Structure formats: structure tokens, C-alpha cells
Amino acid sequence: RCHGTCRMLCHLRGLDQGGTAPGMRQPGEVRGTLTRAKRGWVWNQMFVLEEFSGPDPILVGRLHTDLDVGNKNLKYVLAGEGAGTIFAINERTGDIHAMKRLDREEKAEYTLTAQVINRDTNEPLEPPSEFIIKVQDINDNAPEFTNGPYHATVPEMSQVGTPVTKVTATDADDPVYGNSAKLVYSILEGQPYFSIDPNTAVIKIALQGMDREMREEYLVVIQAKDMGGHMGGLSGTTTVTITLTDVNDNPPKFSKSLYEFTIPEDLGIGQVGGKVKANDRDMGENAKSTYNVIGGDDKDVFEITTDSQTQEGILRLKKPLDFENKKSYTLRVEATNVNFDPQFSGSGPFKDTATVKVAVEDSDEPPVFTQPSYLVEVHENTGVNAVIEQVAAHDPDITGSLVRYFIDRHTDLERQFNINVDDGKITLAKPLDREMDMWHNITVTAMEISRAIVAIKVLDINDNAPEFAMEYETFLCENGKPGQVIQTVSAVDKDDPKNGHFFIYSLVPEMSNNPNFTIKDNKDNSINVLAKHDTFRRQKQEMYYLPIVVSDNGSPPMSSTNTLTIRVCGCSKEGIVQSCNVEAYVLPIGLSMGALIAILACIILLLVIVVLFVTLRRHKNEPLIIKDDEDVRENIIRYDDEGGGEEDTEAFDIATLQNPDGINGFLPRKDIKPDLQFMPRQGQHSGPNGVDVDEFINVRLHEADNDPTAPPYDSIQIYGYEGRGSVASSLSSLETASSDSDQNFDYLREWGPHFRRLGELYSVGESDREP
């Protein structure tokens, strides 16, 4: 094994005795002969120190081949990782040098390939062989705590050896080669409270009885050193903050053994009489305590509760105090931890007790009424200054002061009542009126600010007359029948008799024999008003006034006269009121003003529709504007049969022109839609062998002129195709100056063979008319 650090040479070996490189055959060698070839290259790993920074390149090793026996044509070639940049080879001697400073932490080894070639021809003389150059580590990296600084917690009072936390350091040096990466841990600060395992780096409790209440937080400095902790090694440090967590290791403790309170005897039930506090050195849930009254005289008079926010004991009153009966109380209270930790049970009971002395203070108590409220009933006709009630109160104090009485005028703004300040007699200051105020609630005040509510009920007397329950609006139909009920009347009375109301109705004496109306009792404190005849007319009298007397059965009886206003109106047959004004009498029976207005609006709308219809009808029948007098008024019938020429004598039938749509001689118009059907007279038409075209056209012209459904112009259809090879321009008669005189159609024969048949037809027609 050759090491570059020892400057030893690595030689190339393996050529056989004849000087042949392995894998190469000599000329003339038999192909089938197998001979054992010795290995040409024998390699071991080469090593180079990292971080070497000498002035000259460092020699890593030397390559040598057995072919190199003074032959100057040999050339050493190096290839692979870092060849030519990091590593260089002397092509003549095979020496390999490191040209740069190497760092094992960046790259630990390099793989290269060596080969011997002919210097002149660059042909390989030996096959390439691979070798490795490893970078040898030196201790150039200090340990590092990548996760620091650390924070950890541990319960207080933990046993020695209790694990707290673990720290970890890393070293970038080679952990395999030497001790550069072998770490040893130690504590620089934090003793004697904590210790650390030098190999595992686990921090543990080193001191018994570490109390959070004495010290809560510790700062520990940990060191990691490589080279196994020996001198010359590199080191790194980190800090660990260790906090002791609380446990319930302290009982509650009252700040003093005796508490004294002075409470006034008029303290309200549930009110706070005092506060006690038991302090606990623990925190959070471990410091919570509960308070109880465990002894004392009359312990049911007081109770103690716990304030969850302040952890105080609140002393409250459960029963009223009376200085005259008991002037002081002695209580025994206890504070106990809510949460108990059994491991500290040997430390003693986690509770504490204290004595509370309560002194009752005499108060100037207000007078006390013999009853909290009074109910007084008095008649509304009770005289002024009459005594209606007497209230009484006494002073509960030992002094027994005299009591004076007053009425709180905020409850008696009208000053309806008075009270005797010495004996509490309540008298009437003003007359009572039950209809105005049925109840009076006044407050009587004693000198000692003691109050009592006096409720005074006013009793009713019959001092109000009955009257109509409402203002009635009564209507009477002109066509009503005698005895018809026109109104039901009821009454009300502000009084409130014990046996209820009973009303009596009657007409005023001067109208007891009223010729128009009468009344009928319904036996339910109401009456019906009836009409005596059916001759009521608005033109005669529009309004009637009927006075009615209503009386009650009180003592003394009270009565009032109420007038019922009756209006005469026009009604429908069903008795529904339609109009009550005299002016409306002139209107048609059964129609109101609104109905008449609606009818008039409908009539106006119908008139507008009729006018529009007539206008549109007239506009439709008006002739279209004709620009000149030479307007063509002729029907042109289009047919698609062009004929077969002069040789075809059977293809065209003049009967098609004579009657294209039937044998009745009527041709319907296609340009308009007639409003009524016009049936023309049955015309004379010839058979297929005797056709009179002139007569046919005259008949059609006469029918068109007398057709009421046709507009005053003829329908013109334009022919866009005249045929091929025509020597004439157009056959349309629109450009022909036609008249009633005979025409000569011989010129048609001169147009060519295509028009010869047409000329013969017209010639035949003329010959038929000549006789």
C-alpha cells in the first residue's frame, strides 16, 4: 500500500516476460491458444492531506510501467475527476501532484484513470486503469449545536437523576478517521444543580429538593469538545434555560390567626361583612383554596364563599342582625387546598384555620310599621276631614324614640289626604270622585325614614247619568216598510253599581206620541228604533231628530236626554243606502254619480273607436296617386309554355289564356284580398276551335271595371325573359298603340319560323270575324 504522504512510488506492473501488455496478441499467435495474462496495473488508494497550503504542489504519488525502460516515446495520461485542474501528472515521469488546497468536507475522494500512450502516435500502449485519491481528514471543524439555544422544564422537588433534556452537537470532520469527530460533553455553568452525561449529552437533576418558590429558572452552559476531549481538540458551547414547574408542595396559610370585623345591625342579607385571605406560595391550580365556617356560636348567621379571582374568603350575612338581642359573634374558618398531591402528604395537612370575631354595631333603625301595607275603602261621598284610617309604627331601638308621621307628597300630588304627625290618623282633605280616580296609592313616612304604602279605594255612588254608548249615524230608506228597525241604541254609565246597570228608555213627554217613530225595549239595556210609516221623502224632509231619555236604577236615579239624528236616504231594492242628498234625487234610480261618470267615459271611448274605424275605412278606399293619364290598366297573364316552334301545332292551347283558372271565366286577383266575393256574369267563350281573343279581352276588361273589390288599377306582371333567337324586341302590348280598329298580323310571319304559328292563329281570328 503506497501513501502519497510517505513520498513512496506506486509502480506499474504486470507486463509478461516478453513485454506484452495484457490483452494484446503477438503477430502470428494462434487465436485459440489461451495464456494467463498478468495484471498490468496494481493499484492501492492514494492519500493526500486536506488543507495543505505549502508553496509547491504536493506530490500525491507516482505511476510507472514496465514498458518505461528508457523509452522516451512513452507518455503518461491522467483523466477523471479533477484531472488537469486539481491533479496534474508529469507525462514523462508519471508523478501526480495536487495543484490546489483540498477540503475533505467538500469532497472526500476523487476517482481518476491512468493510461500510457505512444507520444508520437497517441496510441495506447496499455489499457486504462482506474484508481482513487482520498483526501485525508484533519481536525479543522469545531463541534456545533445546530438546535441551540435550548429551553427545558422540570417539576420542582424532583429526585436526583431525573432527566431534564438532551442536547446534540455535530462535527463536520471524518467520524471514521481518527478522533476528529469524537465528542465529549461537559457543563461549564449550572453546577451543582445539574449534570450531563459526557457521551449521551442527557442533562439530569444533580441536587435534591430544588424548590421553585426559592428559585424558578436556571441557565446552564454546555460544552462539546472533539478529539475525545483531549488537549488540542476543538469545542463548541450552547445554553440551556431550565425552568422549574410548580407542584402543590405548599399548604395555604392565613396571614394572621385572628380577624376582627364590625358590622352594622342593619346590614342587608347577602351583603359582605368582611374578607379573609389564606396565602399559598404555589401558583395556578395548586394555589386555589376553598373556605368554610367550621365552628363558632350561631354559625348559621354567616357564610363564607371563595372569590375565584382573588382567592379571598368573603364573609356574608345569612340572617338579620339585632344589636338588642346579640352584640358579637365568634367564628372559626378554614382554608383548604382544592388540589392535593399525595406525594407530599407527609409534609402535613394542606389546610389552615383562623378565628373571626364579628362585633354588631347599633344602628339608628327606622320605625317599623305594624303592617307593611294598608288597604282602606272609603265612599266617594265621605266628608272632608273625616278620618279614613290610622297607621302605627314604633322605634325598635333601645331609646324608643317617638314616631312622627308624614305623607310623601310625591305620591299625593293633588293633596287629597292629610295625616296627623303624632298619631298617624289619615283624613280626607278634598272630596273624592271615583269616576276621576278609583284608586289612590300614597306613602306614609315615619320620622325614622320608615315607609309604608297605604292603598285607598274610592267607593262608588250614583252620581253619573247614563248616556248613549256612541254617536249614532242613522239612515232611513224612502222605500222602507212600517215597523222596520232603523237603529239599535245602547247606553253606558260611568258608575259601577254592585248589582250592575239597568237602563230605562223613553221618549220625551212632549213627543210621546211621535207620528213618525217609536221605540221598543230589547230587555238587554238596549232599544230598537222603529219607523211608523213608509211615506218618508227627502223632498219633503231630509232630517228627523228623535230625543230619547235614558235613566238608571241608582239611588237617587240619574237620567239624561240624548238626541238621535235620522237621515232620509235613497236605497236599492235590497235596502242598501245609495244617496242621502236631496240633489241626488234627480239622478236615475239605482245609479250613483261615479257610475254615471263611468258610463259617460265608456260612451266617449266608443265614439272615438267608431271615428277611427270610419277614417281608416275611408283611407283604404281612396285611389292611389296616379302620376299621368297614360297609366296602363291591363292584366297580363304569365304562362311558362313557350311552344315548340312552327313544327309544334299541338303544344299551345289558347284556352289557357282564355280561362287559366277554370271554366267559369272568373280570374281571382292575387295582389289584393277582397272584402266580399264578386261573382262575374257567365261570359260567352268559344270552344277550343273557335277562340275570339278580342271578345275575351273585352269581357275581362268589363269585369275588372265593374269589380267593386278591385282597386282602380290593373295588375302588371313583368316578363323578364323573352326567349332566345327572337328578332323582335318585345311582344307586350303595353307599347302597342292599340285601338278598336283591326290590325294586320301578317308581319308576324316575317319574324321567322318561331312566330309563324302565332301569326296563323291571329290570321284565323281575323278570318272568323270577317263574315
Topology:
Elements: E1 46-49, E2 58-62, E3 74-80, E4 87-89, E5 95-98, E6 109-118, E7 129-136, E8 150-155, E9 163-166, E10 184-189, E11 194-196, E12 202-205, E13 217-225, E14 235-245, E15 253-254, E16 258-264, E17 272-279, E18 289-296, E19 302-306, E20 312-317, E21 328-337, E22 351-361, E23 368-369, E24 373-379, E25 387-390, E26 393-394, E27 405-407, E28 417-419, E29 425-428, E30 439-446, E31 451-459, E32 467-468, E33 474-477, E34 485-492, E35 504-507, E36 517-521, E37 526-531, E38 543-551, E39 559-571, E40 577-579, H1 593-621, H2 654-658, H3 693-705, H4 756-769
Parallel strand pairs: 1-7, 8-14, 16-22, 24-31, 33-39
Antiparallel strand pairs: 2-5, 3-6, 4-5, 6-7, 9-12, 10-13, 11-12, 13-14, 15-17, 17-20, 18-21, 19-20, 21-22, 23-26, 25-29, 27-30, 28-29, 30-31, 32-34, 34-37, 35-38, 36-37, 38-39, 39-40
Description:
- This protein is mainly beta.
- Helices cover 8% and strands 31% of the residues.
- A hairpin with a 4-residue loop joins strand 30 (439-446) and strand 31.
- The radius of gyration is 70 Å and the shape is flat.
- The N and C termini lie far apart (154 Å).
- Mean pLDDT is 78; it is low at 1-42, 584-589, 625-633, 660-667, 669-673, 675-680, 682-689 and 733-741.
- It is a single-pass type I membrane protein.
- It comes from Scleropages formosus.
- Cadherins are calcium-dependent cell adhesion proteins.
- The chain crosses the membrane at residues 585-614.
